[in-house]
């Protein structure tokens, strides 16, 4: 069993390096406390890998992964749009936190990772390992491997969060969610497209969103300048009260 645990840790850890799960972990670490993110990831990973071990060891069949992947893609896109909309909706002072961030952070992270990992390559790797190895060892090792890989991304998120202003973190996390959602949708709709082309096409979504935000910001600044100029002229044209 020890050998099975070590094998599962190594395979899943390597499979997670550069995966969208690490990007999600980094994004959540920019918004929430690290132990909340790590706890949500651990719970989601343990649950998903129980299911994948059962599929590989007991059932030998797959879940409706395409439908689950589409739900995950739509969820990530919606969270990204919602985050950016909430941040741009407050013109005065600091942006108010997005509504999804006011919900219980643990359950936000848990649900996001559950959706993302169902049908992911890590799930298939775990199911494949469970067909020929001790299922308990595969479950424990795969859970440890994935949590360890995502912990690296959480550490990176903590370091970034210490050096970035709150508004930049908000916009960055919103754009990252758009990218993750677009990449998930592309991989689901056209799995044969390849990783690099999918990444290039997915980057167009947050890029378009960033350009739109920049255009809206410049329009708002122009309106504010016009209003300020009009107010200044109005004050200058008023007769001084009480003068003789």
From TrEMBL:
The record's keywords, sorted A to Z, are:
Membrane, Transmembrane, Transmembrane helix
Membrane topology classification? Multi-pass membrane protein
- State the name under which the record lists this protein: GDT1 family protein
Protein family according to the UniProt entry? Belongs to the GDT1 family.
Q: Which InterPro entries match?
A: GDT1-like
Q: Which organism is it from?
A: Nocardia flavorosea
Bilayer-crossing residues are: 34-55, 67-84, 96-116, 136-161, 168-186, 192-216
Instruction: Cite a GO CC annotation.
Output: membrane
């Amino acid at each position: 069993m020890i050998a099975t645990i070590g094998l599962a840790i190594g395979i899943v850890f390597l499979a997670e390096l550069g995966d969208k799960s690490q990007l999600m972990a980094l994004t959540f670490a920019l918004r929430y406390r690290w132990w909340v993110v790590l706890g949500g990831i651990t719970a989601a990973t343990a649950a998903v890998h129980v299911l994948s071990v059962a599929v590989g060891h007991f059932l030998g069949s797959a879940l409706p992964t395409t439908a689950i992947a589409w739900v995950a893609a739509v969820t990530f896109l919606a969270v990204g749009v919602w985050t950016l909309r909430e941040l741009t909706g407050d013109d005065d002072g600091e942006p108010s936190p997005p509504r999804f961030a006011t919900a219980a952070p643990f359950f936000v992270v848990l649900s996001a990772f559950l959706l993302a990992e169902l049908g992911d390559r890590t799930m298939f790797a775990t199911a494949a390992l469970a067909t020929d190895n001790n299922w308990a060892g595969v479950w424990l090792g795969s859970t440890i491997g994935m949590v360890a890989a995502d912990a690296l991304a959480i550490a990176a998120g903590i370091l970034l969060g210490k050096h970035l202003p709150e508004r930049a973190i908000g916009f960055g996390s919103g754009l990252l969610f758009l990218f993750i959602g677009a990449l998930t949708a592309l991989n689901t709709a056209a799995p044969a497209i390849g990783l690099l082309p999918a990444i290039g096409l997915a980057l167009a979504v947050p890029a378009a969103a960033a350009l739109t935000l920049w255009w809206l910001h410049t329009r708002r600044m122009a309106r504010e300048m016009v209003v300020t100029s009009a107010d200044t002229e109005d004050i200058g044209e008023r007769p001084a009260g009480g003068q003789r």
